[in-house]
């Protein structure tokens, strides 16, 4: 059995390109809050998250759970945007089409 201490110490490896994406997400969340006039204190009160966690989210910290990001997005009314991720999987569709086209050329029609 893995001790809680070991589990808590693990963190995801986030490459620079993906770190920039998280930073952009954090900035987008921060701007959404500012547009609504929501302070970090208000977001903290509505989510139950600490102000430190709110600051980390606004900076795109990869150590913050995706659930916490979603909680803040929910407060600003943008939680539904998460469902748009990978909705239009262009690469997946192309790969599927290539596979389907391969089957077609291999059949005796």
Automatic annotation (TrEMBL):
Pfam hit, one: HTH_3
Domain of life assignment: Bacteria
SUPFAM superfamilies reported for this sequence: lambda repressor-like DNA-binding domains
GO molecular function, one term: DNA binding
Domain HTH cro/C1-type: 29-60
Cross-referenced InterPro entries: Cro/C1-type_HTH, Lambda_DNA-bd_dom_sf
Protein's name according to its UniProt entry: Transcriptional regulator
Organism: Kineobactrum sediminis
């Amino acid at each position: 059995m893995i001790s809680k201490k070991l589990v808590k110490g693990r963190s995801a490896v986030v490459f620079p390109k993906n770190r920039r994406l998280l930073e952009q997400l954090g900035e987008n969340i921060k701007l959404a809050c500012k547009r609504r006039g929501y302070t970090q204190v208000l977001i903290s009160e509505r989510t139950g998250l600490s102000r430190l966690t709110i600051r980390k989210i606004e900076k795109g910290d990869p150590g913050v759970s995706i659930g916490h990001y979603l909680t803040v997005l929910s407060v600003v009314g943008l939680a539904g945007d998460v469902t748009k991720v990978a909705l239009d999987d262009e690469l997946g569709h192309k790969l599927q089409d290539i596979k389907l086209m391969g089957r077609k050329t291999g059949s005796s029609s």
